[in-house]
Structure formats: C-alpha cells, structure tokens
Sequence to fold (559 residues):
Amino acid sequence: MIDVHELSKRYGDKLALDRVSFHIARGEVVGLLGLNGAGKSTTMNILTGYIGATSGTVTVAGHDVAREPREAKRLIGYLPEQLAFYAEMRVREYLDFCCDLKGVRANRAAHLAEIAARVGIAPVTHRLIRNLSRGYRQRLGLAQALIGDPPVLILDEPTAGLDPSQVVEIRALIHELGQTRTVLVSSHVLSEIQAICSRVIVLHRGRVVADDTPANLSRALQPVHRVVARIQGTPEQVQAALAPLAELEQVALLDQAEPGTCDVLIESAAGRDIRADVFRALARADLPLLSTQAHEASLEDVFLHLVADEPVEGQPAAAQPHGHA
Amino acid sequence: MRAILKREFRAYFQSPLGYVFVAALYFFSGYYLFTYNLYGGTTNMTRLFGLLFPVVLFLVPVLTMRLLSEDRRLKTDQLLLTSPVTPLDIVLAKYLAALAVFVIGILAPLLHAAVLSFYGPLDWPAVVGNWLGLFLLGAALIAIGMFLSSLTESQVVAAVAGFVVSLFLMLVDALALVVDSAFWQEFFRQLSFNKRYEPFTLGILELPGVVFFLSIGALFVLLTVARLDRERWG
Fold:
C-alpha cells in the first residue's frame, strides 16, 4: 500500500534521511520509532506530500506522491505532529472546510457526525477552536484525518501531550481504526508502539536500523544476559565474589540506592542466562542477593543495540541505569 | 479551490482587517467626493479616481500581508498542502479572496458616482473606464503583495516590503527623469504604473494598459506558486 524506495532528504548540508526504504502492506499497522530528530516527521511529511524528497520515490497504492499528488493525497489522512488550526473557526466550520478541501460532498452531515462520535468531539462542535483544550485539539486533528474515510492513515505522534487516560483512549481508537485501514504511527515511546503496532520500523539518524515485529525487537532488547542486582556488601566484596565467573563480560557499579548495599549491572555474552551463576557466586561469598531484575531496556539501549557499530554521541559504552534501581 | 477561497474571504471579516481596508477606501473616496465634487460642484470624477491611485498603492500591502505568511507561521499550510489540491489552486484561491475584498472596497467610488448621477449629468463611460483602471491596478498590486507575503513568515515584513514596492512604483516616474542612460529612462518609463493608469482616468480603455496590469498580476501569481514549490522541494 505504501512503498518507500531509497528516500533521501537533505536540508542544507544536513542529511535528514539517508536512503530509507520500506514497504507497508494493505491493512498493516506499522510504528515508526525513533528519537527526536531521527527523521520520523521528515519521512511522514514526504509521504503526505507536504515536502519533497531530495531523491527516492514514495508511492501510495501505486500513485507516486511527487508525480500524481492529487491521487495519492486523496488516499491519505494525515495527523501532523504540530497541530495547526485556523483558531478563529468553529469546530464544525473547520470540519466542513476540510470536507470541501478533500472533496467530500455526499452524506456530509452523517459522515461528520459519525467521525465526531468516534473521536469524541461531538460535545464541542460549536466551540471556537482557539478555546479547545489540548486533548480536544488532538482529537480534532484526528477527526480531520478521518474525513473522506481514507484507506491510509499517517499519524505523527498522535498521543504527544495527552494525559494518561487520553493516551489510552487514543490508542484504543487507533487500534480500532487499524482493523480496516493501513496505518503508520510515529512515536518515540517504545511501549506505545508495542501496544498498537504489528510491526516496527526503527529510524536512527535518518536511516532504517531495524524493521521487525515488536515481540522480536523487545526480545532482543530485554536480554537475560544483562541483570541489575542489589547486593548487601561493599563494592570491593562484590567485585571479588564475582571475579571468578569467567563468562561475565562486565560488572559495572551503579549508584547506591540503599545504605550498606550496592547495585551492579552484570552482563555476560549474549544468550547466556547468568542469573543462577551470579546467585551461587554471591552465596559462596556470603553476600545476600537482595534483588535481581533483567535490565530494563530503554530506548537509548535500543539504539545502542541497533547501531552497535556506530558510537552514539554522549553515551558511554556501558549502559546506564534508567528510571529505577 | 472554492473551499480555500471561501475561508480566506471569511477570514478577512473574522478579523478587523477586511473592515478596516474597506472602510479606509470608503473614507478616502468619500473625502475626495466631498472636496472635489460636492464642494467644487462638478460630476467629473477623474480627479477622485486619480487620487485613489496612491491610496490603493498603500492600502493593498495591508490587504495582502497575511495571505501566505500567516499560513506559514501557524503551519496551517500543512493541511492545505497535504490535501488533494495543487499549489496553483491554493495561490489562486487566496488571490481571488483578496481581490474580492478589494472589489468591495472600490465599490465606493461607483456608489458615489450613482449618488452624483441624481444631481447632474454624469459621464458614465469615463467612470467605468476609471473604475476598470482601479480594478486592474489592484489586481496587479495584490499579486505583488501576495508574492511578498510568500517570502516571509512575518506579516509586518510582508507589509513593509509591500510599502517599499509601492513607494518605488510612485517614484519610478521621477527616476526616469534623473537617470542619464536612454535605456534606463525607457526602462523606468515602461515600468511606471502611473503612466499606465493615467489613460484610464481620462476614460480611455487602452489595450496595452490592460495587458500590462493583467500580465503583472499573472506573473506574480505564478511566481508565488513557484515560491511555494521551491520551498517544499528545496
């Protein structure tokens, strides 16, 4: 349904996209994952025809976005990252305007009523857009994307800036929409992509570094060979106790979280479960193991993992603890 | 295209801009009507139309300053450019919306002519010729102003650039007198809006003048489209 071939985009001397290629089949819900500045929005802007590519082609259902923009754009509903509305318009007026723009004529009232009910903006259709809350604006953006019932939805950070309950609602809505449409969603939150997508494309510095199912990706990213352990004892004792374990590649001391204990990140060669070995080694040295948990993969780790051959600026080689002890 | 035209036209009257523009034209037209026609006791409106020339030169940049700059600044252009419409549709719609507001403004001298016609014989062909001249002048200036608005995100910059162009167009006749080279003299003379406008105020419908203003309008409409494309593909 969406075919992206060798897409590159250059802003001045900065290469924002570097030969990005992927294919999205009809009915797939695909996530575009990446840090800020990885090229997600640039990709989406080119897909929707907002900006042109420096080289490469995008086709939507066989229509080249650059050569047949009208045909391609007719098939796409787009929710941009930075929502911009004509603030002096009323919601209903704005949606009417979008219908006119997209050439929706038949059964307009019924169509708009259905969309309004679906995204939950029915109560605010007579309000001025300038007075809408962030949550309603996001829904209005989504409503706009749904006008004309396009078979392809491109949603750029659809849950950014929403409160947790709204995030859940919007995700459920996207999931529902994905039943009958081809959807491309971008996000920098891994769990979000996992929740709604059947496939993830990871962008890093304008390149595709992974293209897989969320399950496969997170398996690669939640390795049992990397364990954070809290051990009662001094760092020296712990180092000494673990030293005999030959298969350990790294024992890194993390910040102390509890008096009299130390937290360490223990890593072995990939694929080896080391938890039992660590337990026995510590038991022999009479150092109580208070807790262990698989090191939680953060997005930074994903990138360290996926772009292992490329050192990431400002990131030391050793993984840092993220968010919990 | 109709949708954008409708929205742009409405936007003029959802802010004070449209009202202020129309009111200013009615004010100046009314003022000149009073000073020249009522006070001078004549139905000859040539003087009035001649004086509206600089008024239009300085009011049009205000009318066009937000046409494209605002969309860029607010990013509302994203919706337009990702909808199944072409940049030419967008630009033409905005142009026609501004032109429509302009036409409402220059209905003033026509209304005044109608009023005058009750009190004395009126040279209608001259009035219509004058009015057409004013319309063509506006059609050309709006295109220039719209192009300037597409170059910047700031309405103020667009307006100031518009004033500079207007000022230049007023001074261009004088420039032709002070340069030495025959080429530049001729160049500035050909560029003069004033020279092209004059025959209309005498009630003469001159084809070169009509073609001149229409082609300036078309040129800047196309330049604006090119500017939109360039920006997206650059």
Notes: The two ends of chain A are 44 Å apart (CA to CA). Residues 311-325 of chain A have pLDDT under 50 and may be disordered. Chain A touches chain B through 26 residues (CB under 8 Å).
